[in-house]
Amino acid sequence: MNKKKKQIIEAAQTLFIKKGFSATPIQDILEAANVSKGTFYNYFSSKTECLMAILSFIKEEVIHDRHQLALGKSSSDKEVFVKQIAARFHIDKKHNLMALFASLASSDTAHQELKEFLNQQYLEEVTWMAERICDVFGAKKQKHAYDDAVTCFGTIHLTSKILMDINKTEIPIEETIYFALGQIERANLHPPFLQADYFLPYHQIKDAGEQDSKIELQQTLTALNSKVDKLKNDKLTYYHHFLLEQLKSENPNLFLMESVMNSYQNALLHTELEDKRKYIQILYTQFMEEKRENS
Amino acid sequence: MNKKKKQIIEAAQTLFIKKGFSATPIQDILEAANVSKGTFYNYFSSKTECLMAILSFIKEEVIHDRHQLALGKSSSDKEVFVKQIAARFHIDKKHNLMALFASLASSDTAHQELKEFLNQQYLEEVTWMAERICDVFGAKKQKHAYDDAVTCFGTIHLTSKILMDINKTEIPIEETIYFALGQIERANLHPPFLQADYFLPYHQIKDAGEQDSKIELQQTLTALNSKVDKLKNDKLTYYHHFLLEQLKSENPNLFLMESVMNSYQNALLHTELEDKRKYIQILYTQFMEEKRENS
DNA sequence: CATTTATTGGACTACAGGTATAAAATAGTT
DNA sequence: AACTATTTTATACCTGTAGTCCAATAAATG
């Protein structure tokens, strides 16, 4: 990454930690990073975008740490699971951004992008947790995996918040996680409440970075073929198959794809396939990033 | 209440609902309330304080509704409990401030007062829920009441948030509450995690308004007699017994009490009794308010 | 060396929350 | 009715914010 951009991100990070996001004026970031305003807005279109970049780094860090923790261990290893959950807290704690991650609302139209970004992150986290609950507790939990993931996640967050507000001591995060797991580690008496397909768009792409997002995107689109055709929307159908053609070819025209994907995304809005939109968007962004890195 | 103040609060409420708190400039409130800036700052020292006033009203509303729901019903009536929980959501929904209530963090030094205010509210809510869980599920849940209250509260909040973010339809709040209750309505396998005395300062005063907060305050202080003496802090001990003397007398000197209570509060800081401080503060404030109303 | 690109730094806009104050309106009292 | 005290208004003002714009400068590139 660019040197200046790195400088900015690092400075912003330390300042956000020390004083909080909205209490940190851009001016302070500029001075700390030894960079001019022009440069800042050359790399980030807004302060919010800068924060999102930081949060993205943290996300990568968490994913990496969790991957490391899993190496050589069974996927049903409970201890590993606990440590993996704790990873987010440790890193957020290190960056002191936990509160920010927990505060998903704020109901401000101004920070719309930030809201969506954080929503994406927390929904991915819940989805991941449901998957891991299946791993760890086996088939008996399969049906209730999302129910229990939500309960677990909710319990962990609220408990750690309470311990922080009341005790003001260091939070015993692993104990808290064990407590939350204990709360779900009992027989479910009722039928499942949350449906698995709500969470379809938030499944993380396995082995990200190593595999080819091109194939993933291709497969996802192909899977939608029949549904798209059924919608009988000429434009949408055209975009869809055009994108698939490009993905099949050796050298896709990236500029054309960029443009068509844009229209495709818009066309997907307000259709039955709207819920798949974001997922496609994510895959596409990954695909483009990989292309850019390779070139 | 003052007419102008009412105008302002009503206007602010509708605007906060429509556009969100920080997206609503004071100017808009002034115009909507047909009031000048000077008047606004005559009644509220800041926009934040105005919001807190609104939230206080909502709290009163919730307490009132819950009281109504309980009339003539057994305290172990589960249906009543569910409706009581839902009351907060219905009212917050009506005022569309649920998101705000849920977003307790934001980590901004600027909104310190707001943060503390919201903390108080959510901790009171959890405490109330623990009490009610005892009522409804009986002795078997007593030990785990706080554990389960946290799990229940966390599950309800996260679930409703997820349903809102993903489904974007109206949240089936009662079903969500039944789900959350189902998540705790099972045998606890582990010893309790959260200690009851964390929540001591957040117990709501029963039958508030009808009974005498003077007696409540007196009892609370008396209960602390031995602990205070044990601390061997001359000043603190003096304040403590002075306040008790005043409370016993027919006509306490309110000005003196105000001053001594202030010092007493400060003296309590950083002692073993720090956790009782807020509770005493609340009782004292109530006591003073009643006095003021009677005069 | 010449051209392109990145960077600077400051001026500038628009808006926010909050203060200050003198004049006008209102309410309360004798 | 007259006087007083309080409330309200209207407006100007201060401080600080995010973000835009742009001409001048520096750095990188072929």
Explain what the structure shows:
Chains A, B: Keywords: DNA-binding, Repressor, Transcription, Transcription regulation. 2 copies of one chain form a homodimer. The first copy, chain A, has 295 residues and is mainly alpha-helical. The first copy, chain A, contains 14 helices and no strands. Chain B binds a DNA duplex (30 and 30 nucleotides) through α3.
What labels describe this entry?
295 residues; homodimer; DNA-binding; Arc Repressor Mutant, subunit A; HTH-type transcriptional regulator TtgR (chains A, B); mainly alpha; 3 domains
Short synopsis of the structure:
2 copies of one chain form a homodimer. Chain A is mainly α and 295 residues long. Helices cover 73% and strands 0% of the residues of chain A.
Shape of chain A: globular
Query: How would you state the average pLDDT of chain A, rounded?
Result: 83
Provide the gyration radius of chain A in Å.
21 Å
Number of domains of chain A: 3
First-residue to last-residue Cα separation of chain A: 14 Å
Strand content of chain A: under 5%
Please trace the helix and strand order of chain A, writing H or E for each element: HHHHHHHHHHHHHH
Number of strands of chain A: 0
Specify which chain pair forms the largest interface. A-B, 52 and 53 residues
DNA-binding region (chains A, B): 25-44
GO molecular function (chains A, B): DNA binding
Protein name (chains A, B): HTH-type transcriptional regulator TtgR
Pfam families (chains A, B): TetR_N
